[in-house]
Amino acid sequence: MSVPKNLYIYPWESYTENNCNSFVIDGSVRILIDPGHAHLLHHLEARMVRDGFSLEDIHVALATHPHPDHCEGLVKLKELGALIAMHEEALAFLSRFRAQWEQMTGQRMPDFPVDFFIKEGRLELGSEVLQVLETPGHAPGSVCFYWQEPGVLFSGDVVFVQSVGRVDLPGGHAGLLARSLEKIMSLDSQVLCPGHGPVLEGRGAVKENFYLIRQYFFAHQASPSSPQ
Ligand SMILES: [Zn+2]
């Protein structure tokens, strides 16, 4: 199984400006994962229009974690009529993070009027079910979404192809990230959709990527479940 037909992948491709990858699940409830920066939303919108829908068509917008390059656009999505959500700890982190945010973006941090909190467990959105995994380490309140039926893992900034999320930003923690990695590598993922960089297809490739990351970045934290 490769990328399902109702998954739209919008990788961020500019090298001059940082933003995240965005993903749309076109189910009976249309879900947007990580809208990215507010001022860059028009890029996403232009590409969505080519696929036959617009930001107004999004019913629910979710953020994997509380960094501006992933969650800032939620506010605009809310204005356009979507329900918006993040983890409760992510929202709490944002209020503590206000000064750094304003320093990083040069803009006032918006309020995030979330409609519900994302938490560990099953998140049923119309015809689609996402398994939410709490995966701190890169940022407080970070989550991954595992879309079980097609085996697609949206990993935010926890893991990328051949790399892991930074732990040197406020609230980062290498030990927690290692534990989060163990948690998501036990899933039977066939497609890895990270928050930045390329998407990885194929169960073997996804598994290999996890083992490579564990070995390269977390070798000092020996795990009893190592394959060899
Ligand atoms: Zn991040």
UniProtKB/TrEMBL annotation:
<dbReference type="InterPro" id="IPR001279">
    <property type="entry name" value="Metallo-B-lactamas"/>
</dbReference>
<dbReference type="GO" id="GO:0016787">
    <property type="term" value="F:hydrolase activity"/>
</dbReference>
<dbReference type="InterPro" id="IPR036866">
    <property type="entry name" value="RibonucZ/Hydroxyglut_hydro"/>
</dbReference>
<protein>
    <submittedName>
        <fullName>Glyoxylase-like metal-dependent hydrolase (Beta-lactamase superfamily II)</fullName>
    </submittedName>
</protein>
<keyword id="KW-0378">Hydrolase</keyword>
<dbReference type="InterPro" id="IPR051453">
    <property type="entry name" value="MBL_Glyoxalase_II"/>
</dbReference>
<keyword id="KW-0862">Zinc</keyword>
<keyword id="KW-0479">Metal-binding</keyword>
<feature type="domain" description="Metallo-beta-lactamase">
    <location>
        <begin position="19"/>
        <end position="196"/>
    </location>
</feature>
<dbReference type="GO" id="GO:0046872">
    <property type="term" value="F:metal ion binding"/>
</dbReference>
<dbReference type="Pfam" id="PF00753">
    <property type="entry name" value="Lactamase_B"/>
</dbReference>
